[in-house]
Write a structure and sequence with these properties.
By secondary structure, the chain is α/β, with parallel strands linked by helices. The chain is 43% helix and 17% strand. It has 13 helices and 13 strands. The protein has helices at 2-25, 46-61, 81-93, 104-114, 129-132, 154-164, 180-192, 211-219, 231-235, 237-247, 256-260, 271-286, 308-313, and strands spanning 36-41, 71-76, 98-102, 120-124, 145-149, 170-176, 199-205, 224-226, 251-252, 265-268, 297-298, 303-306, 326-327. Strand 12 (303-306), helix 13 and strand 13 form a beta-alpha-beta unit. The longest helix is centred in the first third of the chain and has 24 residues, at 2-25.
């Protein structure tokens, strides 16, 4: 009997080891022999959601499909730099082949954790990757990092504001003080302002809790507010819109989803297309190309979008020069 018990225990132990090994092999889903792409999206808002959707399309168009010949691990940092860094550290520790950082804070987290490792980094929607320290040069990134830039068509945006509000003199900008993309956009916006007869009134915030009061104060001082791609501000867009509406001024967005959510208009970028370009880069890297040898890419042609209902609410007529602009309606909140 004792011999039987020992044999049974040995068989059970072997079985448990086999089950544990199988579970470990399946951790994260799919075959562990497949190359692995980690995706860290910094925050959940429509612009970055569109980047992610386009990214998956681009990866698939390059010939890679999750679970078949690549394993994709998607994570959202929920607007937390600390979380982004934890996610990146975990992906690097697991020897992921590529990490994609959607938005500057996620890209910086991935880049920082991947230094000195074999993990390649691709950024999506980083306005100024040179200023952020992600690449040495837009055409020759070097190192283990490349990606796509979403530096906004600010002159076309300013032209649009002047056309829709010919008597306006002050444009308000709400920005997060530690977002490098916002600082780069603000610097360029200020350079352009005198050419179109505008004064830029900028208010910096540190976190979401600062936005309600800052937006209310800013709205009382200007003729309109212009959004960049500031993740903190865009995540709290409805608060900004509410304060602007109370002050009787419109808010201009930086892409179509913001206009759908209540901004009056934008000369913005197609973030699905930007994500698609980023996915094509991931495909090249999975095929053996080093990230640092791939030039940084961007969207060349902005897409004018207007929300006529919002314009009408401010008694603003859309000029004839924007007759061909895409029309959108406000999403139901």
């Amino acid at each position: 009997m004792k011999k039987f018990v020992k044999i049974f225990a040995a068989v059970l132990s072997i079985a448990m080891i086999a089950v544990t090994a199988a579970a470990c092999a399946g951790n994260g889903g799919g075959n562990t022999d497949l190359p692995t792409v980690g995706i860290i999206q910094y925050a959940a808002h429509p612009s970055l959601d569109n980047c992610y959707n386009g990214l998956i399309q681009g990866i698939e168009a390059a010939g890679y499909k999750d679970g078949e010949n690549v394993r994709i691990d998607y994570q959202n940092a929920q607007n937390s730099t600390e979380t982004a860094e934890q996610l990146a550290a975990n992906m690097v520790a697991k020897n992921y082949d590529v990490i994609v950082g959607i938005a500057t804070p996620a890209a910086l987290a991935a880049y920082g954790k991947a230094q000195g490792t074999s993990t390649q980094v691709v950024f999506c929607a980083v306005s100024d990757p040179v200023e952020a320290g992600l690449v040495a040069d837009m055409n020759a990134p070097g190192g283990n990092c490349t990606g796509t830039s979403d530096f906004l068509p600010l002159e076309q945006q300013m032209q649009m504001i002047r056309a829709l509000q010919p008597d306006a003199t002050k444009i308000g900008v709400l920005y997060t003080t530690n977002e490098s993309n916002s600082l780069s956009h603000l610097e360029k916006f200020r350079e352009l302002a005198p050419k179109y007869g505008f004064e830029i009134v900028a208010t910096g915030v540190q976190n979401a809790s600062d936005i309600p009061q800052a937006a209310a104060t800013l709205a009382s001082q200007v003729d309109c507010i212009n959004n960049f791609t500031d993740n903190n501000v865009v995540t709290n867009l409805q608060t900004v819109l509410a304060r602007a509406n109370e002050a009787g001024i419109p808010v201009y967005g930086s892409e179509i989803e913001q206009v759908k959510n209540g901004c009056i208009a934008s000369e913005g970028l197609d973030y699905v297309a930007l994500g698609n370009q980023t996915g094509a880069m991931v495909g090249k890297i999975l095929g053996g190309t080093n990230a640092g040898s791939i030039p940084v890419e961007s969207i060349e042609n902005p897409t004018p979008v207007v929300n006529e209902a919002v314009a009408a609410s401010f008694n603003i007529t859309i000029p004839a020069e924007y007759d061909s602009a895409e029309r959108v309606e406000t999403n139901q909140q």
